[in-house]
Write a sequence for this structure.
């Protein structure tokens, strides 16, 4: 039994989940102005305290945490019970939204905030890779 697509999705989602936890930690440190506790030496505090750190009033870290957790659960279900068209559609919709949010976030960091959060960049790159893995069937002919 080889490493299936679902295994890659779960592995990358777990890594993104851990990074999202670190980003949330960085956000709390920046918001509470705790000196010397940050893991980041770059612009994480500027990014995490910007007006763009929230989407519809919800911290992006919470949205990411919920999204990656749901992705892991869906893929575990599909590994155990087999492919399910409805779950695949939900996954495709979720990753498309996540991809759009990641691209927006990269744009905002580069051109608006003009600071980079290294952890955010890694989560965004993982999201782009996940998008390719999940959505490639729509673009690659067999």
């Amino acid at each position: 039994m080889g490493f299936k697509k679902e295994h890659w999705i779960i592995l990358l989602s777990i890594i993104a989940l851990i990074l999202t936890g670190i980003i949330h930690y960085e956000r709390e440190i920046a918001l509470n102005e705790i000196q010397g506790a940050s893991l980041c030496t770059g612009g994480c505090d500027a990014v995490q305290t910007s007006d763009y750190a929230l989407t519809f009033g919800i911290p992006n870290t919470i949205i990411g945490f919920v999204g990656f957790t749901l992705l892991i659960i869906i893929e575990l279900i599909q590994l155990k019970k087999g492919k399910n068209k409805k779950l695949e559609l939900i996954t495709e919709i979720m990753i498309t939204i996540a991809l759009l949010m990641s691209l927006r976030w990269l744009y905002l960091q580069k051109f608006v905030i003009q600071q980079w959060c290294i952890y955010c960049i890694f989560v965004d790159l993982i999201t782009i890779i996940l998008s390719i893995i999940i959505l490639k069937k729509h673009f690659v002919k067999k």
Remarks:
- The two ends are 22 Å apart (CA to CA).
